[in-house]
Amino acid sequence: MAQISSNIGAGELVAGAGVLSRPADEFVNDPSLEAVWVSKAVDHAEVYFNILCSVDPKILRLTTHDDVILKTFREHFPDLKVDVLIEDEVKSPEGKVKWREFCEKFKDVVEDYNFGTLLRLDSKGEYSEENTMLSTRIQFYAIELARNKEGLNDSIRDNFKPSRTKKS
What is the pLDDT along the chain (168 residues), one digit of tens a residue? Predict the structure, then answer.
């Protein structure tokens, strides 16, 4: 059986996919569960970054609910600077409570709102081990929508070229 990483095989990924459909509040931060999410999240990150390299982010729509997501995000986090995120602040006990309240507002609105997604810490950089954290899909949407609207992703097209995604 082909191995996705040295610790997780394809069988574990399939089994993990079923577990991921459970409500997020049933889980603690289980590193093995996060690892399962990462495999799917990497594909999403590659596609999104290639889009940023190709399209003016200000005209980019990520969902049919962009306006509501951005408005709600800024109501909950009016002072959060999204240019460079500090992971420890987002994932602090206080941050987790605040983010959980925000995320749950989209439970019945955004499909896979709590699915694991990769998020760049510094909006001027590409995805890398140092510049990436794991977030929920709705956190990704909220932060990236703010970055796009505020012009923080504008430099990506000038500094990076789209890459070919790997075929599985």
Answer: 333 344 445 555 555 556 556 666 665 666 776 666 667 778 889 999 999 999 999 999 999 999 999 999 999 999 999 999 999 999 999 999 999 999 999 999 999 999 888 999 999 999 999 999 989 999 999 999 999 999 999 999 999 988 876 554
Burial group, residue 99, by CB count within 10 angstroms (0-12, 13-18, 19+): buried
What pTM was estimated for this model as a whole?
0.76
Q: What's the total number of domains in the chain? A: 1
Question: Does residue 1 lie in a domain region?
Answer: no
Angle between helices 137-149 and 66-76 (to 10 degrees): 90
Cβ atoms of residues 90 and 135 within 8 Å: yes
Domain that includes residue 63, residue range: 10-159
Nearest to 4 by CA among 46, 32, 44: 32
